[in-house]
Design brief:
The protein is mainly alpha-helical and 337 residues long. It has one domain: Glycosyltransferase (Alpha/alpha barrel). The protein is built from 14 helices and no strands. The chain is globular. The N and C termini lie far apart (49 Å). It catalyses: geranylgeranyl diphosphate + L-cysteinyl-[protein] = S-geranylgeranyl-L-cysteinyl-[protein] + diphosphate. Its cofactor is Zn(2+). Catalyzes the transfer of a geranylgeranyl moiety from geranylgeranyl diphosphate to both cysteines of proteins with the C-terminal sequence -XXCC, -XCXC and -CCXX.
């Protein structure tokens, strides 16, 4: 990364945790439920709830939302016919909303709420989405993406239901998505993208297969995502920085022990510049509208580089859950027989 004068970087600010807690709380208020945007975003509700709760948990404010109402909503989205979770009651089950549901239950230490019968149906829903080439579909409509491999593998890990056959096939597919630059695309031959790098690396990390990739080449590609003079990170070459890549890029660098390959001071300043100090929350770039997606990944990204300084809990770069929670997940390889 080229040298930048200290005076060229944006001034650092403090993290206004209470503003961000209030922002997350406001997303499901009586006022927000009367908005058009609230109802057209049903398809993201389970994911949005996970993003908000993860931001709260990282700020050590998980109790800011009523746990009983959260758990009741999650369980209302379970689809008995397919065994997976939808994004909203009566929505079709999808692997993305299924993972978010399981992560929320893990956050509250309520995975046992599933019960053995439902847990088995969730497992079978996930396993039924894996294709012969090791990839996973998102749902019965057939879209394939490395995101779905990661969400499936993490979901099975949370359930304690990983197997060597599933791991080996998933690993084979992920490795076929590697590009000449050392990074990963959404499928074999697809363009390298930082979010796909994270989902690919995290899958390999769960499978204990990070040794199968060229970590130095990938680390170089990831470190080149830092955009100057802002210090923010982008997802692909020649793109604008976006605060969400503070998670996708940083977590990937953490998994290969190369966070020190980017300038954390400049990145910290960029992240803090994206917070809305009036309404709370974070936007993709300074001055834009905040949303819960960017709020989650700004805060978790900040935790990876300056967590103690800002009073944030340590975050697990594999599971995107507080490390104190992910420590209880059974790690592969284990005997599930």
């Amino acid at each position: 990364m080229e040298e930048v004068n200290k005076q060229d970087t944006p001034a650092q600010k403090s993290l206004d945790k209470m503003k961000h807690v209030e922002f997350v709380q406001s997303l499901d208020s009586k006022v927000s439920r009367q908005s058009y945007e609230y109802w057209i975003s049903e398809h993201l509700r389970m994911n949005g709830l996970y993003w908000g709760l993860t931001a709260l948990a990282t700020m050590d404010k998980l109790d800011a939302l009523p746990s009983s109402e959260v758990i009741a909503f999650v369980m209302s989205c379970w689809n008995e016919n397919t065994g997976g979770f939808g994004a909203f009651p009566q929505h079709d089950a999808h692997i993305l909303s299924t993972l978010s549901a399981l992560q929320i239950l893990i956050l509250y230490d309520r995975l046992e709420s599933l019960g053995d019968e439902r847990k088995n149906k969730v497992k079978n829903f996930i396993l039924g989405l894996q294709l012969p080439n090791g990839a996973f579909q998102g749902d019965s409509f057939g879209e394939v993406d490395t995101r779905f491999v990661y969400t499936a593998i993490q979901s099975l890990a949370l359930l304690g239901e990983l197997s060597k056959e599933v791991i080996d096939r998933a690993t084979d597919f992920i490795l076929k998505c590697t590009n000449f630059d050392g990074a990963f695309g959404r499928a074999p031959g697809a363009e390298s993208h930082a979010a796909q790098v994270f989902t690919s690396l995290a899958t390999l990390a769960i499978a204990n297969n990070l040794h199968l990739i060229d970590q130095s080449k990938l680390g170089s590609w990831l470190s080149e995502r830092q955009v100057l003079p802002s210090g923010g990170l982008n997802g692909r070459p020649e793109k604008l920085p976006d605060v969400c890549y503070s998670w996708w890029v940083l977590s990937s660098l953490a998994l290969i022990d190369k966070i020190h390959w980017i300038n954390s001071e400049y990145l910290e300043s960029f992240i803090l510049s994206c917070q809305d100090l009036e309404s709370g929350g974070f936007s993709d770039r300074s001055g834009n509208q905040p949303d819960v997606f960017h709020t989650c990944f700004a805060i978790t990204g900040l935790s990876l580089i300056q967590g103690k300084k800002h009073g944030l809990k340590a975050i697990d770069p594999v599971y995107c859950l507080p490390s104190e929670i992910s420590a209880n997940i059974k790690k592969w390889p284990v005997d599930y027989s």
